[in-house]
Structure formats: structure tokens, C-alpha cells
Specification:
84% helix; mainly alpha; 222 residues
Length: 222
């Protein structure tokens, strides 16, 4: 009887993990497509960037709302609002690379492909090996917070060298975040697919931007 109960518990847990994982990847794919659609509209109509302050207010405001409504249908609305807003901020950046920087289209496509390969590779590694990367949580939080503060300083005080260093750090941190979040899902540490989607989306978004910046610098085009 005890063995049957343990088997039933493990089976139930496995079903729940698979459900969260499936829902996360489905929602992540939809939000990435929606973000790309909004970004494309922004590029076509040459919409201006909302600016640093409005971007921060919109991002953290929508992130807070997503967190607050993560267990209801409104959470899905908030997720698409957040990712759509990030697409709106991404469009003008891509437009700048396409119209101002030589070979900008190649830089954008290379960064896009690199982001996809990194995400696929790291996610596959975490899923296949099933290693627990929970130990990365504290380090990632501290590193992301430090880089976020320094990135704002680099923008305000116009420090290009610091900006390059931050982009390099963000590539490493976002790669670690993909491993961490995927591990949290498969080990039951994250049971809410909405929040799992948001975390992975943020990792992919920042990874893409960081790769674009680094590729343009190392290509000597910026």
C-alpha cells in the first residue's frame, strides 16, 4: 500500500511537471510571436522609443500586475500586455540597426539565430540531464540586479565601455537564467506556467539585445 501511494505521488507530480512545462512552452511561443509582431509594426511605422523612464515604469508596472494576477485569467492578459510592450520598445532598436548601422540586417539575424541556438541548447541540456540548477538562484539575482543598476548608469553617463561589459555579463546571466528556470520547472520549484513564461521571455529578450550589441561592437560597425 505504501509503495502504491508513493508511486501515485510520483506519477501525479510527473503529470503536473509535464503540464507546467507544456503550458510554459506554448505560452512562451505565443508571446514571442506577439512580441515580434508588435516589434515589426513598430519598425514599419517607425514608432519612436518610449524612453528610459516610460520603459521602466511600463515594464515593472506590467510585471507587478502579471505577478498579482498569475493565478487567474487576467494573468494571461497581463503577460501579453507585458510582452507586447517589450516588443514596442524593441522595434525602434531594431529599426536603428536596420537603417543606420551598416550590415545591420546581418547583425539582427545573427543575434536572432544565436539567441535561438542558445535557448534551445541550454533548455535541451537541462531537460535531458535533469540537473538541478537551483543553486544559481541567489547568484543570478545578485548579478542581474548589479548589471541592471550599472546599465542605467552607463546610459545616463554615456559610458560605452561599461555598456559593452554589461552586455557580456547579461549573455552569461541570461543563459544561467534559462538553465535555472527550466530546472525549476522540471524539479517542481516553479508550478505557475505564467511566471515561468515571463522569466524565460525576459531571458530571451535580454539575451537578444545583448548579442546585438556585442555583435555590432566586435564587428566594428557601431
Amino acid at each position: 500500500m505504501r509503495l502504491n501511494a508513493q508511486t501515485l505521488t510520483r506519477t501525479t507530480s510527473s503529470i503536473q511537471v509535464n503540464r507546467v512545462l507544456r503550458n510554459t512552452y506554448i505560452l512562451l511561443a505565443l508571446t514571442l510571436l506577439f512580441c515580434a509582431f508588435v516589434a515589426a509594426i513598430s519598425v514599419v511605422f517607425q514608432l519612436p522609443h518610449p524612453g528610459l523612464i516610460l520603459t521602466l515604469v511600463g515594464y515593472f508596472g506590467l510585471l507587478f500586475m502579471t505577478q498579482a494576477f498569475r493565478n487567474s485569467g487576467l494573468g494571461l492578459v497581463c503577460v501579453f500586455a507585458l510582452t507586447g510592450f517589450m516588443g514596442l520598445t524593441l522595434g525602434p532598436i531594431i529599426s536603428t540597426y536596420l537603417t543606420v548601422i551598416p550590415n545591420g540586417d546581418q547583425i539582427v539575424m545573427t543575434a536572432f539565430g544565436g539567441t535561438g541556438l542558445i535557448f534551445f541548447g541550454l533548455s535541451s541540456y537541462a531537460l535531458i540531464t535533469r540537473k538541478n540548477f537551483a543553486f544559481l538562484g541567489g547568484m543570478l539575482f545578485a548579478g542581474i540586479l548589479a548589471c541592471f543598476i550599472m546599465s542605467i548608469a552607463a546610459i545616463i553617463f554615456q559610458m560605452p565601455l561599461l555598456s559593452v561589459a554589461i552586455s557580456g555579463c547579461f549573455v552569461i546571466l541570461m543563459s544561467g537564467l534559462i538553465l535555472y528556470q527550466t530546472s525549476e520547472i522540471i524539479h517542481g520549484g516553479e508550478t505557475n506556467y505564467i511566471m515561468a513564461t515571463v522569466t524565460l521571455f525576459i531571458a530571451i529578450y535580454n539575451l537578444f539585445l545583448s548579442l546585438i550589441h556585442l555583435l555590432s561592437i566586435f564587428g566594428g560597425r557601431e
